[in-house]
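As noted in the main text, all predictions were made from sequence alone. Below is one such record, for Resolvase/invertase-type recombinase catalytic domain-containing protein.
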Amino acid sequence: MIYGYIRVSSDRQTVENQRFEINNFCQRQALPVDDWIEEV
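Prediction:
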């Protein structure tokens, strides 16, 4: 199982942007994200 981990630590970061970039990376590497963990 592959988890995408998102942690937002400043006002300039967003969950959406991080999820977008992680998804792009995983698609290029052929890695399916099964579930997400978010810390805000």
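The mean pLDDT is 95. Strands lie at 3-7, 35-39. These features were considered when defining construct boundaries for the mutagenesis experiments described in Section 2.9.
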